[in-house]
């Protein structure tokens, strides 16, 4: 069984981003900058944002964190988003979720400058992805595709099953697999007999947030399994894939050390891409 090592690939992507960010700096005097907005004091969100700041630093990107109180109104947050959109020194904007209840999440997403939409959640980014046009793609599905590409997993004509249909992971991942010529089935909590569907797959990507959802009997021997899930069980991080799947699958991404590190690496890549587009007008995918 091949372990799909996301941590090692993430290091390679970060190094590539660092080299290309340095080249952009030399050519155009621009250092890509990510601005993260943190509303409230959720400890997990604060940790995620600190990790993103650290990773930006390691790749030679700059970062800013705007820390706002839990009582921040939507009007005040909107004004901050406007300022970040207009600030030429900022190339990527992300608003860390979850947000306090007085903040309308959908409005935050649509109000973020689409030129700086490094989370790929703006409706314009979603529309471009649907059309197969260049645009920002959410970081986690981008990470899954990078991992499959790195391990040279063939996709053309293969049957891919995605479990989970969120706007953040499942739906964009299904579209990316489709664009790579896989035959894609998208499953969710109302899919009857999930195992009958996943057993048909050459590639199974699970992003449901349910520990142990994918059991060995649901996997065709030799299939490629990508575990996107992150669940905290008894103070441990586990994915959506049950332990015995490693004995059946041909390849499997671990949790931790699989898609998690790639998600942050792709955020850096998207920030570099945003900086290039804003300053040079190029697409420049990493
Ligand atoms: N590795 C990373 O960096 C990373 C990044 C993002 C997310 N994640 C993890 O990935 C998982 C999914 O995240 P998300 O944001 O997409 O979650 P989400 O918005 O809660 O969506 C979960 C999806 O899974 C489906 N689902 C839930 N239970 C199911 C079941 N028993 N059978 C089949 N489908 C089921 C849901 O179906 P319905 O639509 O029918 O409700 C929904 O579409 C979470 O564990 C999250 O922590 C990891």
Please explain how this structure is put together:
With 286 residues, the chain is an alpha/beta fold. The chain has two domains: 31-114, Leucine Dehydrogenase, chain A, domain 1 (Rossmann fold, 3-Layer(aba) Sandwich); 139-260, 3-Layer(aba) Sandwich (Rossmann fold). The chain is built from nine helices and eleven strands. The strands form three sheets. The protein has a six-stranded parallel beta sheet with strand order 1-11-8-7-5-6. Strand 9 and strand 10 form a beta hairpin. The chain binds NADP nicotinamide-adenine-dinucleotide phosphate (NAP). NADP nicotinamide-adenine-dinucleotide phosphate (NAP) is lined by residues 140, 163-166, 168-170, 187-191, 194, 207-210, 213, 228-231, 259-260, 263.
Note the main attributes of this structure.
Rossmann fold, six-stranded parallel beta sheet, binds NADP nicotinamide-adenine-dinucleotide phosphate, 286 residues, alpha/beta
